Structures are given as structure tokens and as C-alpha cells.
Give the backbone structure.
Amino acid sequence: MSSLRIRQAVRAVLTTPDHSILLVRFEFPTATVWALPGGGLDPGEDHVTALHRELHEEVGLVDMNIGPHVWTREQIIEFIDGNWDGQRDQYHHVPVPVRFEPTPALSWEQLRDERLHEIRWWSIDEIDAATSDGTRFAPGRLAELMRLLARHGAPDSPIDTGV
């Protein structure tokens, strides 16, 4: 039996002091999913280097202070391109002082090629309400995880988010 081909990825938990979080909307053939900015590691990149690149490409942030690794998520699902059997995300907390208007370095055409179609700030209550209405988030229990982060700060070791 061959081993699974797991894509290594990194994501930013970009939060403001009022606990708003920046999310991106992905459009896949089978689902719309709101997730955190970030993406796969390029060959030779470590997680922090990849996250700096992704934050610049997707939201226009440069030279951000990358905080601690707070969550981990692994999902086994064949990628549309057939190259991967799943993905392992490493989430880092990246606090920002205020909500800002994202200005991606990539064009919207390039972002859409990566299935990214929208970027917006959400409150925890908005995530709760949208989840109740059937909106999908990755990770699925994002509101709960955000409440834990807001109340207790970064955990001593990364939390497994589940799918």
C-alpha cells in the first residue's frame, strides 16, 4: 500500500483586538468554503517563510510578526488536480491592531485561478450565525476555536481542530 501524499500548508489566524478574523472564500466544484489566508509550502520553504509569502500574495501584508503555532488541521480528500490525497494545515496567530482593507499582491484573476474569490472580516457571532445557516468554514468549529483563542490566548501546544 502506498503512503498518502499530504500537502504541507500554513494559514494565518489574523485577528484584531475585538476578535474579528480575516477569512477568504474558496469556490470549489463541490462546495464554497470560508477559510483562513495561507496555502501550500513551496519546495524548500519552512512554514513561517511560506506564511510571509502567502500573506503578501493574498492580503498584501509584508514583514508581519508571525505568532505562535496555535492550531493544526489535517484533511484527507483528493485534490482536484490529483496531485495530493490531503492537506495538513499549520495555523499561526497573527494579531493586527485594526481591521485593514486587504490589497492582495496577486491579481484577482490569479487569486481566482487558486479558487479564492473573496476576502472579508468576520466577527465570531457572524461565524456562528452563518454556520447555523449552512455556511461552511474550515476548520468547521472555527467560532469555538476563536472563542478559546480570545479568552485564553495561544495554547501551550497546538490544538487539533478536526475537520
Q: What stands out?
A: The beta strands are 6-15, 21-27, 32-35, 38-40, 69-76, 86-95, 116-122, 136-137, 159-160. Helices lie at 47-59, 108-113, 124-132, 142-152. DSSP finds four helices and nine strands in the chain. The first strand starts at residue 6 and ends at 15.
